[in-house]
């Protein structure tokens, strides 16, 4: 590269000085003596000593390049001897995974050939380089903690889908999932690993040993006396099961943990370039430290933290010479991580806020000024990749100092506007899985994370019932237990404060990405983020079955909470500036976003079905209510698009298989989807066909005109398309008349909020439910410990052997509980804290308000995506089931009103004709059924307006034919339980004596009948002469079917039990049989409920249908009694078999139901008589 310091021009990229001495004054260059002193101070020799002034060469900008070449050549000369091919190694100098021939099974290999994801049962792959002599080391970054065997193998090892590294004679492996070592046989070794750990694999071919380290801590020698000699060379290798993933570091980046003495990485570091880069960085530091006092004519020491360029030509040209050599080096990942990132981190080590270190901003300005654009781009990309890797794979320490360190530097880099926009546009979502920055990993080994020091005292609740649930009878807490609990809570608070520091930094990153004021030099950051965020959502929504493409749900949970915090910050900030706007406490998504085509919902299902179908069937409503006109030609295009859907999906499926096929034949693979830019495909094309526009509502629909509207794909949208301007409403195009004409917030924030709701639906709710498992484990071990302690107290003194075994068990359970209680503290702080609960509650309220506003639009409600209703139901379920007992939903502000509004939504929409999806209708019905199970939520249903309650009951009483009726019937039964004959039990009485442990089968809640809803039901049956017979006939029909099926099945069960050659019954058949019995009982209870509440339906002969209904009821009752009560009948014999799965089948449940019907009929007949 030619020098940027020699020549005659002075431009941005090439700073050159005129050779005429008089020009120096004009350009502001200092005098030659001072310049000479300055350049000698900056560019010191290799030993750091400066020769005496009389022996120094006189330096000017004309001979500086020559001087610099000589200084850097000195470094090269001293290092050349070390830059030789290492003895004992065979293969390419750049070590990667052998994707052409050195693998077995189906694997996805990263495009740098260092990352690998298992895509088959047990795939294996080795590196391209082997070693036969000396001491060698490489690192493996564990991205998932599943089944993997990591180590070394020879070329002769043959692997398959069942046997991998460590399963053949000349292969050796460590497996941190099962905590074992493998070499044909297996024994216990090492510690368990977790996602985010780093395994170091060491081989000493001089001594014949193999060892492993976990996060820099030696696990000891795993194997000795390994086979050596002629023809024996060992390759790094791994076998991993489906969807497990790792990344290798053979030496292309600095090893995370210092080299064990005498061991070398398989790939040599770039020693010459490293020495040159460090030397140039030293010169750069000298420039920052040394200032020029022109007035005094001397050099001065400067405060580096506040250094600024301030337009000094001498300094600028000096820096240009340095960057002339430094820039190309900063495109190499090893040098960026070892030199540049280390230097930037050292700037922040002085403490204080990131804003207190403007030097990093100045250095980034210099990079953009003095480096070629492609060099800056590559350098920033490698810097962010190194930061992400460092953050992800840093061990958890008590103060989380490492994570805080890397996040602070990330913030400092993203504070630089030009760098932030480049990274957002090209790196953060396209190349990196940047969501990792918002994740706080949970430590699997609490002792290494320092939780023992942070939470020295452990505690767990120990008041449990036999079912493992916390007892309602709160016993007095002992003084010792109270002290333990309080000490544990104090430890949890200490942990929470430290984690909140990390969470605050993560929110700062998102605030930078959501900045919409940085419009200098192009689009504001927020609008770049919006488009990338939408692509990220599409990738996760469209590939829900492809685990290698999806963002892991544990990342999504953390990302969701940080994004909510950043969103509410900007939302309330806008409210402060615009008082008429809504606060974040009143946030909702206006309904026009769902039909105006401005926001892409991909192929997600709408409440009314497919979007293309809705646009055709509701086009008149769109025009009349929302002033939105759909071009007929565009509608035709949509129709054709639907016709091509199957063909296109087949094509995309074929394309998705190509990487696998490429790997199978030894071809190089592209980076997996979550590491590269997602392809939009059909969703992008669909946006371009959904042309919508405003029209004058008074214009007759018959005179449609072609209106030119920009058809937008996600990446084409601008700030104006989102926020709107000059009469253009942006995302709010097509406001329906029912929607209030008032500002809500900035349109871009509405789209972020919509994306947050979608994220919760994609995977967050599932993860919240999964993490409850740790709490369940604590409960189980606490039960086991309590049981063991009771046995110890009852153990006879003479049985020392039993006593010792019980003491061992007690110790194991106590140690496990100590570990789990500390881990649970971490999970409660990061996932189930009060603040996280408030976020989920806020999301529930957003969904409720959005559904209420959408409902008012009439037929346009059908455009709402189904996930809004799903999130409303699931977030309530999470609040009720996942966050307790740590936090109670009842403590949330406005809890009662929110419960009632959700009840109104469920009551109205479970039978809403505008909702056509079977799955979402079933979910609504199940949510309503769950709602009426619990007293608190049942009272919320009773508080909704009377008109809605009556409408709900009328829908529940619709005939059972032509619709799923079992859930409806179950809801009616729940409203009745506690009022029927012999129907006030919580547990099945016939099981209390025979099998107390099964007394809760099926699991029943305590009865909580609703007399108010019963009254509505009675009024409807009495007043509507057509409703009662149609409803009761359908119930009687279903009862005939269910009980007949049950009788048929127990006949088959009896026959199977009597056969000598086959004395077992299929468990599925038993389950179906028990279900039919439970259905029969519940239908009988609904009939009992009807007879009790409105007996005149059967007994009032003025009603034309009464006699027929009474006759049918008597026939069904007789049928049930005959089958159940006959002596030594079929029913008796099956019940006496006591088959597992048929515990609920007994005389009692069905006999009391029939008796209840008959008693009410007799009593009411006497009354009427």
UniProtKB/TrEMBL annotation:
GO CC list: cytoplasm
InterPro entries referenced in this protein's UniProt entry, alphabetically: B30.2/SPRY (IPR001870), B30.2/SPRY_sf (IPR043136), ConA-like_dom_sf (IPR013320), RNF123/RKP/RSPRY1 (IPR045129), SPRY_dom (IPR003877), SPRY_RNF123 (IPR035773), TPR_RNF123/RKP (IPR057987)
Catalytically driven reaction(s): S-ubiquitinyl-[E2 ubiquitin-conjugating enzyme]-L-cysteine + [acceptor protein]-L-lysine = [E2 ubiquitin-conjugating enzyme]-L-cysteine + N(6)-ubiquitinyl-[acceptor protein]-L-lysine
GO MF annotation terms: ubiquitin protein ligase activity; zinc ion binding
Keywords in alphabetical order: Metal-binding, Transferase, Ubl conjugation pathway, Zinc, Zinc-finger
One Pfam family linked to the record: TPR_RNF123
Ranges where the B30.2/SPRY domain occurs: 75-255
The enzyme's E.C. designation: 2.3.2.27
Ranges where the record places region Disordered: 1-22, 718-742
Biological processes, Gene Ontology terms: proteolysis involved in protein catabolic process
Enzyme class (EC, first level): transferase
SUPFAM superfamilies on file: Concanavalin A-like lectins/glucanases (SSF49899)
The protein, known as: RING-type E3 ubiquitin transferase
Organism listed in the record: Pelecanus crispus
Taxonomic classification: Eukaryota, Metazoa, Chordata, Craniata, Vertebrata
């Amino acid at each position: 590269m030619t020098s940027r310091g020699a020549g005659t021009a002075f431009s941005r990229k090439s700073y050159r000085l005129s050779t005429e001495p008089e020009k120096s004054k004009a350009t502001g260059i200092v005098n030659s003596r001072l310049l000479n002193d300055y350049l000698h101070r900056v560019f010191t020799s290799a030993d750091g000593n400066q020769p005496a002034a009389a022996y120094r060469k006189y330096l000017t900008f004309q001979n500086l390049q020559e001087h610099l070449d000589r200084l850097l050549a000195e470094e090269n000369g001293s290092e050349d001897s070390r830059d030789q091919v290492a003895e004992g190694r065979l293969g390419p100098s750049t070590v990667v995974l052998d994707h052409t021939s050195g693998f077995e099974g189906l694997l996805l290999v990263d495009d740098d050939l260092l990352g690998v994801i298992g895509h088959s049962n047990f795939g294996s792959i080795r590196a391209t380089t082997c070693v036969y002599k000396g001491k060698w080391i490489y690192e493996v970054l564990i991205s998932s903690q599943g089944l993997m065997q990591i180590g070394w193998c020879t070329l002769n090892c043959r692997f398959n889908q069942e046997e991998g590294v460590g399963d053949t004679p000349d292969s050796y492996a460590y497996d941190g999932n099962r905590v074992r070592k493998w070499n044909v046989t297996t024994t216990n070794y090492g510690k368990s690993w977790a996602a985010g750990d780093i395994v170091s694999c060491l081989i000493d071919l001089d001594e014949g040993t193999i060892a492993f380290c976990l996060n820099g801590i030696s696990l000891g020698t795993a194997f000795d006396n390994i086979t050596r000699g002629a023809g024996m060379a060992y390759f790094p290798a791994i076998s991993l099961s489906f969807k497990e993933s790792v990344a290798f570091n053979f030496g292309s980046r600095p090893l995370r943990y210092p080299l064990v003495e005498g061991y070398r990485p398989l790939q040599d570091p770039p020693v010459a370039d490293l020495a040159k880069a460090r030397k140039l960085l030293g010169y750069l530091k000298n420039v920052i430290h040394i200032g020029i006092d022109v007035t005094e004519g001397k050099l001065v020491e400067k405060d580096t933290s506040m250094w600024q360029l301030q337009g000094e030509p001498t300094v600028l040209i000096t820096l240009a010479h340095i960057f002339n050599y430094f820039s190309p080096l900063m495109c190499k990942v090893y040098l960026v991580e070892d030199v540049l990132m280390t230097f930037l981190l050292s700037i922040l080590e002085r403490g204080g806020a990131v804003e207190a270190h403007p030097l990093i901003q100045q250095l980034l300005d210099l990079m953009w000024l003095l480096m070629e654009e492609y060099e800056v781009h590559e350098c920033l990309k490698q810097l962010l990749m190194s930061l992400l890797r460092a953050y992800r794979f840093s061990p958890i320490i008590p103060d989380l100092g490492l994570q805080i360190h890397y996040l602070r530097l990330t913030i400092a880099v993203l504070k630089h506007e030009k760098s932030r926009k480049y990274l957002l546009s090209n790196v953060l979502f396209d190349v990196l899985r940047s969501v990792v920055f918002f994740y706080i990993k949970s430590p699997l080994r609490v002792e290494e994370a320092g939780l023992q020091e942070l939470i020295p005292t452990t505690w767990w609740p120990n008041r449990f019932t036999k079912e493992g649930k916390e007892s309602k009878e709160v016993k007095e807490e002992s003084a010792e237990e109270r002290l333990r609990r309080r000490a544990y809570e104090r430890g949890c608070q200490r942990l929470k404060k430290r984690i909140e520091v990390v969470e605050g930094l993560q929110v700062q990153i998102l605030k930078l990405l959501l900045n919409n004021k940085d419009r200098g030099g192009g689009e504001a950051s927020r609008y770049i983020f919006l488009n990338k965020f939408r692509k990220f959502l599409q990738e996760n929504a469209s590939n829900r079955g492809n685990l290698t493409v999806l963002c892991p749900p544990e990342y999504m949970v953390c990302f969701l909470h940080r994004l909510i915090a950043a969103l509410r910050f900007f939302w309330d900030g806008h409210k402060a500036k615009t008082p008429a706007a809504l606060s974040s406490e009143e946030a909702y998504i206006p309904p026009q976003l769902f039909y105006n085509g401005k926001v892409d919902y991909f192929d997600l299902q709408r409440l009314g079905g497919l979007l293309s179908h809705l646009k055709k069937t509701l086009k008149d409503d769109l025009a009349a209510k929302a002033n939105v006109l759909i071009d007929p030609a565009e509608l035709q295009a949509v129709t054709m698009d639907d016709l091509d859907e199957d063909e296109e999906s087949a094509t995309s499926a074929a394309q998705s298989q190509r990487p696998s096929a490429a790997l199978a034949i030894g071809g190089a693979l592209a980076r997996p989807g979550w590491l590269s830019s997602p392809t939009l495909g059909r969703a992008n094309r669909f946006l371009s066909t959904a042309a919508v526009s405003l029209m004058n509502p008074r214009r007759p629909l018959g005179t449609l005109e072609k209106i030119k509207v920009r058809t937008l794909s996600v990446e084409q949208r601008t700030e104006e398309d989102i926020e709107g301007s000059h009469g253009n409403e942006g995302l709010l195009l097509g406001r329906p008349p029912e929607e209030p004409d008032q500002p809500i917030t900035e349109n871009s924030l509405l789209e972020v909020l919509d994306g947050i709701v979608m994220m919760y639906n994609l995977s967050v709710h599932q993860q919240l439910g999964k993490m409850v498992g740790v709490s369940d484990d604590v409960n189980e071990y606490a039960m086991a410990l309590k049981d063991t302690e009771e046995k110890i107290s009852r153990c006879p003194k003479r049985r020392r052997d039993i006593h010792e075994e019980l003491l061992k068990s007690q110790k194991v359970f106590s140690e496990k509980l100590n570990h789990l209680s500390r881990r649970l503290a971490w999970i409660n702080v990061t996932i189930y804290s009060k603040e996280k609960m408030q976020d989920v509650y806020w999301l529930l309220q957003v969904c409720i308000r959005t559904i209420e506003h959408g409902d008012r639009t009439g037929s346009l409600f059908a455009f709402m995506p189904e996930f809004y209703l799903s999130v409303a139901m699931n977030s309530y379920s999470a609040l009720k089931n996942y966050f307790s007992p740590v936090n109670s939903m009842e403590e949330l502000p406005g809890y009662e009103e929110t419960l009632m509004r959700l009840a109104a939504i469920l009551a109205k929409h479970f039978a809403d004709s505008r909702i056509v999806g079977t799955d979402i209708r079933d979910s609504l019905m199940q949510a309503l059924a769950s709602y009426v199970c619990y007293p608190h939520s049942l009272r919320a249903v009773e508080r909704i307006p009377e008109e809605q309650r009556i409408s709900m009951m009328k829908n529940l009483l619709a005939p059972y034919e032509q619709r799923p009726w079992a859930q409806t019937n179950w809801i009616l039964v729940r409203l009745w339980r506690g009022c029927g004959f012999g129907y006030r039990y919580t547990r099945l009485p016939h099981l209390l004596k025979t099998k107390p442990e099964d007394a809760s089968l099926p699991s029943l809640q305590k009865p909580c009948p609703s007399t108010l809803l019963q009254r509505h039901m009675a009024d409807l049956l009495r007043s509507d002469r057509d409703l009662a017979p149609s409803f009761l006939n359908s119930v009687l029909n279903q009862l005939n079917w269910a009980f007949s099926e049950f009788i048929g099945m127990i006949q088959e069960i009896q026959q199977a039990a009597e056969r000598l050659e086959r004395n077992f019954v299929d468990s599925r058949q038993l389950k179906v049989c028990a279900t039919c019995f439970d259905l029969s009982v519940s239908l009988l209870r609904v009939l009992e409920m009807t007879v009790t509440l409105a007996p005149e339906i059967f007994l009032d002969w003025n009603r034309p249908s009464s006699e027929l209904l009474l006759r049918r009821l008597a026939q069904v009752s007789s049928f049930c009694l005959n089958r159940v009560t006959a002596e030594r009948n079929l029913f008796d014999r099956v019940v006496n078999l006591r088959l597992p799965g048929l515990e609920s089948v007994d005389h009692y449940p069905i006999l009391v139901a029939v008796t209840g019907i008959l008693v009410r009929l007799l009593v009411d007949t006497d009354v009427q008589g």
